[in-house]
Amino acid sequence: MRTLDLVRRFRAVCRPVLLCLAALALLLQAGCGADPTTKKDAAAVDAGADTGADAGADAIEVDSGPALTLKWTELLPDTTTKMRAAAGVPGKIGSYVIVGEKATVLRLDGAVFTDISPTTIGKPDLNAVWVDADGTIVAAGAESTLITYDGTSWQVAGSIPPSPPVTFLAVHGVPGGKLWAVGEAGQAYTRDKAIWAPAAVSVTASGGEAIGADADFVDVRVTKAGSIWVAVSKGATSAGAVVRSVDGQTWTGVGVATPPRALWVDGADDSKSGSALVVGGTTSAFVARWDGSAFVDAGDVKWSLGFRAATGLNPAATWIGGLKGQVRGWDGKAWSVVNIAPPPGTVGGFPTPSGDVLSIAAHDADEVLVLTAFKLYRRGRQP
User: Fold this and answer.
1) Interatomic CA distance for residues 160 and 150, integer angstroms
2) Does residue 320 contact residue 308 with C-beta atoms inside 8 Å?
3) Containing H/E element for 29?
4) I need a labelling partner for 299 at 20 to 30 A (CA). Which of 46, 128, 155, 286 fits?
């Protein structure tokens, strides 16, 4: 009886407390706006926020800008001087260096030209340019001009004799390695590290194609393996020749039917058939391909006049440029006409170049620059 009485007293005391706690719980539930029937869904959402939502919050949304389209663009340098050669800047798609008369040197980035012409060497005409992997520019031209730009200033190759003056026509090298510069009257120089020195390019009849001391060297290519190829337009036994050396000391020559004007060699591997191309001609087209032992006809180039420029990425991706703005591309199987102008009726259309193509440079299959005397045409992915 006494025990029952104690239980009744305990309930009497605790009941108000329990009622207060229940009321407080209802208030908290109303304040949070939680619906008891959605607690499970809310928990699932919170779990998702801890995984995907938080991860997405850490990502930064980048504005990729306007869509890019593969197309040709006509570029007009702010200069009245004639441009003569162009070279791509390694590792920088859309960037090129163009050289020309009166010591003009322009840097092209996309569609923006920057004049980086030297100001302390007079105004010799520049005929050739090459860019090293680190961005160093080497330009060569008339009046024994052989100059290097390190991104800040120009340096003159002091070892080149000013008299008799050398007219350099071509320069080429291996990234981070040897360079060669060649020109008229049998002149050839090579640079190992920082010093330019004269080099003898001499071939006797026993070497396959004799060339004289007064031979004009119009182009040069250097491969990664160290081979040097030189195009000879005058002074050979035949109408023209291409001479080659694997060490810069002993040379062999191959005659060609027409004086060459430009040469391209696969820098990665020049041992295979099709790894070299030579072009020339004036009233008729001359394009010959290396077959491993001689230069043979390269097939129908769909043009009746001469060519002045050649470049390539590999034997299955080469381009040649000729008189009256003609450009041809080789895909490893056949030559095709490269239509520089956009289709008729397109916005911003321009005519096919009427000037002679003097130089072609390529970064990849989609990025090509064609140079005439006063205009450039760039094919690439652009807004």
Assistant:
1) 19
2) no
3) helix 2-32
4) 128
Q: Which of 24-33, 129-138, 352-361 has the highest mean pLDDT?
A: 129-138
Q: Pull the structure tokens for residue 94.
A: 């859309």
Round to whole Å and give the CA distance between 99 and 139: 8
Domains and CATH numbers, the chain: 70-382 (2.130.10.10)
151: its two tokens: 């991104």
Start-to-end CA span in the chain (Å): 97
Nearest to 129 by CA among 142, 140, 119: 140
8 Å CB contact between 53 and 44: no
Helix residue ranges, H only, 33-172: 39-48, 54-58
Contact 221, 264 (CB under 8 A): yes
81, burial (CB in 10 Å: exposed 0-12, middle 13-18, buried 19+) = middle
Q: Which residue has the tokens 């590999």?
A: 314
Residues 87 and 89: their CA atoms lie apart, in Å, by 7
Per residue in 226-259, pLDDT (tens digit) is: 999 999 999 988 999 999 999 888 999 999 999 9
Distances (CA, A) of 382 to 94, 108, 351, 363, 371: 9, 14, 19, 15, 18
CA distances from 372 to 84, 321, 323, 328, 381 (A): 8, 10, 10, 15, 21
Model's pTM, two decimal places?
A: 0.80
Q: What is the pLDDT of residues 97-117, one digit of tens each?
A: 999 999 999 999 988 999 999
135 close to 151: Cβ distance less than 8 angstroms: yes
Sign of CA dihedral 333, 335, 337, 342: positive
Q: Is 253 helix (H, G, I), strand (E, B) or coil?
A: strand
Query: CB–CB of 99/84 below 8 Å?
Result: yes
